[in-house]
Design a protein that fits this description.
Blueprint (H helix, E strand, L loop, with lengths): L1 H19 L1 E16 L7 E6 L6 E11 L2 E11 L6 E2 L11 E8 L3 E9 L3 H5 L12 H6 L16 E9 L6 E10 L4 E12 L2 E10 L18 E11 L4 E11 L4 E14 L2 E13 L4 E13 L4 E12 L5 E11 L1
Antiparallel strand pairs: 1-2, 1-3, 1-18, 3-4, 4-5, 4-6, 6-7, 7-8, 8-9, 9-10, 10-11, 11-12, 12-13, 13-14, 14-15, 15-16, 16-17, 17-18
């Protein structure tokens, strides 16, 4: 019996050790068909769409329990083009781990420190506080925030969703609130990016705020570098959401200033996710006022339906319209399948 007890204890210890140290492969595969007619264009273009609701990606992450409430972790992940299998990201070169590439330590009492390529301060407040999340194809807030969307020239203000060579600190979650501060310095080009965000979750209510200053572009960006230390980009935003059961509603407001192109913008967004049948009806509206040599107002609205087929697989269909000052309305519509693993 004593030998059996010792063997049982050793086996339990081995299982506990394996559970404490973990490495896992994860990802999202999203593909479909969409048609887009830009504002002012005469006809629509239909094409295969990789990442309609979420950019297709895969990654590897791990965690090791160091004892005493301390753990070490890492995460490396890549964007992929489902149409041709290529890795996406980087203008000067194709970077393998453009989505994330960082290592860190976390203390249950003191918080977490991460080092490497990680999300910019605006990223989580943007994707967590609109009904379409990080949909680069359909989300009006995403279009108003990153990569210029279908028409507006916002690329020069936000440009990239992540910062290279960054170091961040995130507080422990206290009463539903955690705060992150992040900085990224480029010794070659002499620029420093800095900023932070706050995320608050308490039952059905959530709120966020962020600020970021961009002085240097990252190699992981999909866009050409437009920043210098003398002409940085500044941006801040506020957001909130409330889940009333019959519907979850979101609202955000943000302002940005890009000194490289003497341009300012003000963006407002409202959206909702309404349970309907086995899925959800999604609706979102965002409007942006640009102030530069010629003031332009850009507005976009989209509505759709997302139907889960399981906990990891869903299908979706969306239709949207967008307008820009002095141009005929644009349109976008499409459908796709998303699988998480």
């Amino acid at each position: 019996m004593k030998k059996l007890a010792i063997v049982s204890l050793l086996a339990l210890s081995a299982v506990t050790s394996m559970a404490a140290d973990s490495v896992s492969l994860y990802g999202i595969i999203d593909g479909g068909i969409s048609a887009t007619k830009a504002a002012g264009a005469s006809s629509a273009t239909t094409s295969f769409t990789s990442g309609g609701m979420t950019t297709s990606a895969f990654g590897i992450k791990g965690n090791e329990d160091l004892g005493g409430g301390l753990s070490a972790f890492f995460d490396v992940s890549s964007f992929i083009d489902l149409g041709n299998g290529a890795v996406k990201g980087g203008t000067a070169q194709q970077n393998l781990f453009t989505r994330s590439a960082y290592v860190g330590v976390k203390d249950n009492t003191l918080g977490a420190v991460r080092a490497g390529r990680q999300e910019a301060p605006s990223f989580l407040p943007t994707i967590l506080f609109n009904a379409y999340g990080d949909s680069s194809t359909y989300s009006p807030l995403w279009h108003a925030t990153y990569f210029g969307g279908n028409n507006p020239p916002s690329t020069a203000i936000y440009n990239d969703t992540g910062w290279d060579s960054a170091v961040s600190y995130t507080t422990p979650t206290i009463a539903g609130l955690n705060v992150t501060a992040i900085g990224s310095h480029n010794t070659t080009n002499g620029g420093t990016n800095s900023g932070g965000n706050a995320l608050y979750f308490n039952g059905p209510f959530a709120a966020t705020a962020y600020y970021q200053r961009t002085e240097i572009n990252s190699q992981g960006s999909f866009q050409t570098n437009l920043y210098t230390t003398a002409k940085p980009g500044d941006a801040y935003g506020l957001g909130g959401s409330y889940d009333a059961g019959v519907a979850k509603v979101f609202a955000t407001y943000g302002e940005a200033k890009d000194n490289s192109q003497t341009m300012k913008s003000k963006t407002s967004q409202v959206s909702t996710a309404i349970p309907a049948g086995k899925g959800s009806v999604l609706a979102e509206y965002a409007t942006t006022k640009y102030y530069n040599n010629s003031d332009v107002t850009y507005a976009e609205a989209v509505v759709g339906y997302d139907l889960p087929l399981s906990k990891k697989t869903d299908v979706y269909a969306n239709y949207g319209q967008f307008k820009e000052t002095s141009l005929t309305n644009g349109v976008i519509y499409g459908a796709g399948l998303r699988v998480r693993f």
